[in-house]
Design goal:
The chain is of the alpha+beta class and 495 residues long. The protein has a domain of 101 residues. It has 12 helices and 27 strands. It has a 25-stranded antiparallel β-sheet that branches. The chain has a two-stranded antiparallel ribbon with strand order 26-27.
């Protein structure tokens, strides 16, 4: 909230007709510009108000007025103080924007299973930034809070989230190929979440407490098409009526094309330190736990990447048998994603083909057309170099999967350091543990397929073909699927 709300209120701060004099006429013009993005009704109903305060414009958003525009039966209770920003024009045509978002709020609505309530508060909330109309983004901004709490409750679950102090920064510059390059960071301390699940129907009760002394969020972007996004928002507000939207769909198509590729690249990550989970089955933890995501925009050969990383993993001892505890990883680094993803052809052809006057808007054969374009680029699932390890064992893997003829074909390499430790652990446990005795011959058989590398690691190169055959290190593990005769005279296909 401390970063999203300021952006909502400065969508129209780039009006070129503004002078450096802050007056009532300027407030009126700013209000009219904002109505392009929030709708005139929001202005008329008092949801958004612009006034003069000293040498700045006061922009206030009244959540109660917004709630009043919603169906009356939804809200049982609603209490939310107005949010206020001050926007002051600068000599270089940018704007100084600041706000105090210290607040508390509560509301209750009728949910499908009964009333649902939420209360939250933000202490010491401050925001300050410089908004650049040419970028349609903040060139720089900072925000901070002293703390935050949120409580929610419904028929089956109660949750409470809290944090200590937090800070956030945003910086943006003009991108070389159009749009905006940006970086954003956020850090909060003393993150805690307590969830108490209680289902009266089943009798299931499951309390859970998650804690971390530090949560960090980082994001970078290249070529974000901020101005076309705002143009699309203004179009949506101006064409809320279905008949008007249909009449102006040529303009909509033009705006959608102008927004492509949406962005060139976006990357983001979340990270926890000293992460802990308390549950009825025991204590789980990690010294470090994080995930990251990256995506190209709408491109001909786009890529998507995910990763999950953890260090110093711990689990309750009784969750796994004693012999299995020695095999569990304490550190993981998993990387996967996709490549050769052609969304460009799909998006452009969809924009060209849709007709809002038809039902459905896209022709029936359109799905087959874009599917053919998508597969023509040979998209693939990629397993980047990934590892799972503890003090004695390390498992590494990497590979990719493609889909020639719409059938999967994969090439994966797995190598393990310390495989003998796995064998020894199971061999010892097999003397007294029936479950371990079942696994022991399996790990011996797997070892037999392995290739010993110069550093002592065992390696398995696994190849699966579209015909159903599987080889491991060149040895046939499974032959191709039998072919079935085709009475039509066509070439037989593997089944």
């Amino acid at each position: 909230m401390n970063r999203v709300l300021p952006a909502v209120f400065v969508l129209a701060l780039g009006a070129p007709a503004f002078s450096q004099t802050v007056d009532g006429e300027g407030a009126k013009q700013l209000s009219e510009n904002l109505s392009r993005y929030v709708g005139s009704q929001a202005i008329d109903k008092g949801v958004l108000k612009v006034s003069v305060e000293g040498d700045a414009y006061k922009i206030a958003f009244d959540f109660k007025a917004l709630a009043g525009m919603l169906p009356k039966q939804n809200f049982l209770k609603f209490d939310f103080a107005p949010y206020v920003l001050l926007a002051k024009p600068r000599s270089d045509a940018t704007w100084d924007v600041s706000g105090d978002f210290t607040t508390s709020a509560s509301f209750e609505i009728n949910g499908p299973e009964g009333p649902q309530s939420t209360q939250f508060s933000i202490e010491g909330g401050k925001f300050a930034g410089v908004y650049d109309p040419e970028l349609a983004a903040f060139a720089s901004a900072t925000s901070s809070i002293a703390g935050m709490t949120m409580k929610s409750r419904d028929a089956m679950q109660r949750a409470e989230v809290s944090t200590g102090a937090g800070t956030a920064t945003v910086n943006a510059t003009k991108a070389a190929n159009g749009g905006v390059d940006f970086t954003a960071t956020q850090t909060v301390t003393d993150f805690a979440e307590a969830v108490d699940f209680d289902d009266p129907k089943s009798g299931l009760k499951f309390p859970l407490t998650i804690k971390s002394p530090e949560l960090s969020v980082n994001a970078t972007g290249k070529g974000m098409r901020t101005k076309p996004f705002l143009d699309l928002l203004a179009f949506a507000v101006a064409n809320e009526d279905e008949a008007k939207l249909k009449a102006n769909q040529a303009q909509l198509k033009s705006l959608l094309l102008a927004a492509l590729p949406l962005w060139e690249r976006i990357d983001g990550s979340y990270g926890f330190k000293d992460f802990t989970v308390e549950s009825p089955v025991g204590h789980f933890g990690a010294k470090e736990l994080g995930t990251s995501f990256g995506s190209d925009g709408i491109a001909e050969n786009g890529a998507i990447n995910y990763s999950i990383k953890a260090a110093g993993l711990t689990i309750p001892q009784h969750v796994v048998p004693a012999w299995g505890a020695a095999l569990l990883p304490t550190d993981i680094d998993l990387n996967f994603g996709g490549a050769n993803i052609n969304l460009d052809s799909m998006a452009k052809k969809a924009i060209e083909a849709f007709d809002l006057n038809q039902n459905p808007p896209l022709p029936a054969e359109f799905g087959d057309q874009i599917k053919a374009d998508f597969m023509a680029k040979a998209p693939k699932v990629v397993i980047g170099h990934s590892t799972m390890k503890n003090s004695d064992i390390e498992v590494a893997m990497e590979g990719e999967m493609t889909f020639p003829g719409m059938k999967p074909e994969a090439n994966v390499t797995i190598d393990i350091a310390g495989y003998d430790k796995i064998v020894e652990s199971l061999q010892t446990a097999a003397k007294s543990e029936p479950e371990a005795a079942q696994y022991f011959p399996v790990v011996l058989a797997v070892k037999g397929f392995g290739k010993t590398l110069p550093d002592g690691r065992l390696e398995w190169v696994i190849n699966t073909k579209a015909d159903g055959s599987v080889t491991v290190n060149g040895a046939m593990l499974k032959p191709a699927d039998p072919v079935e005769a085709d009475d039509s005279g066509k070439e037989p296909t593997p089944q």
